[in-house]
Amino acid sequence: MTRNSLLITAGIALAAAGLLAWAFAPRPVLVELATAERGRFESTIDEDARTRLRERFMVSAPLAGRLARIALHEGDPVAAGAVVARLSPVLSPLLDERTVRSQQARVASAEAAVLRAGVRVERARVGLRQAENELTRSEQLAGKGFVAPTKLEVDRLAVAAARKEIEAGEQDRHVAEHDLEQARAALSAVRQTGSNGAPFEVRSPIEGRVLRIAQANEAVVALGAPLLEIGDTRRLEIVTELLTTDALRIRPGARARIERWGGPGILEGTVRRVEPAAFTKVSALGIEEQRVNVLLDIVSPPAQWAALGDGFRVSVRIVQLSEDNAVTVPVSAVFPLPSAKPDASGAPPMAVFGVRDGRARVLPVTLGARNGVQAWIRAGLEAGEPVIVYPPPAVADGVRVKARGR
To answer: Which domains does the chain have, with CATH numbers?
Structure first.
């Protein structure tokens, strides 16, 4: 074999060896990368909910008599003090002693309701003063850097909720005074002879809309018979049924977002009350659950949600934890360390796969909390560091990795 043939053969052998070495050499694992970011982290409780009128009023017959046909229909607006029904006295029942005593008892009950409504207003004013004092202290401490901005926001929402309680109390007192006026007018009508047959006018206690007509046709009605239901659709609340384990982490004044309500954008709300009594409800899977009603107020401008009505379905996100300036990563980047022992709370230690010098590195981290999208990293990772999301099984500590698409 000539010298040239040997050189060609050797070159081919070396090229083949190099090709085989390249083919069987370990290659970087393709991974999806994300960057740890610094910003606000929120943990929320998401649940379906429905709207509900804060207060609805059933207008009943203040005395027995013949009811004229009610011309109103469901949805019609009514003004406060407007005539919604007329009762014509019948000849004999209005004049007996039993009816007079019954009307006197209704007057006494209405007077007690006025006093009770006044007490509620005073209690609401005390609550407002307490909320304002707490807000003042928080603003002073926030100016010195001792209070988180979220605490200041919660105190401001508490002041707004206290003012709404005063408005509700004033509305109750107005209705109670109207009921007292109607009861006294009914007692005066009973004491009259009734021979002239002048109709007694039943008036609306509030400004609102007709929700339901209980007795539309002309008929003889008894004392206290329901006639129609009226409510102010501008005073809506939202009620959601939370698991008792979730409701324990909710406090009045907590922020909430109202989504999927049928209109554009997201409405803002606050938790007004967590009811103290729970109830049993069977889930769609047939599991008995203990749930409790949580009531929320809508704080967005009323013009934004004017189309909402009573009983509409919405979705709520109640913020149970909010942290500013938190280091966050996608929740898919966090995984438990299988070989480490659980901490004092029983939770397994967590870690992420970081990327340093082109290799995956297991970085133990302290997890503050997580939601459906993000995980809050208290320690072990700095903002701006790359992490692997959805790490494939081939990724391990020290394995060479490469970002997909690069």
So the answer is: 29-40+325-403 (2.40.420.20), 44-52+234-323 (2.40.30.170), 56-231 (2.40.50.100)
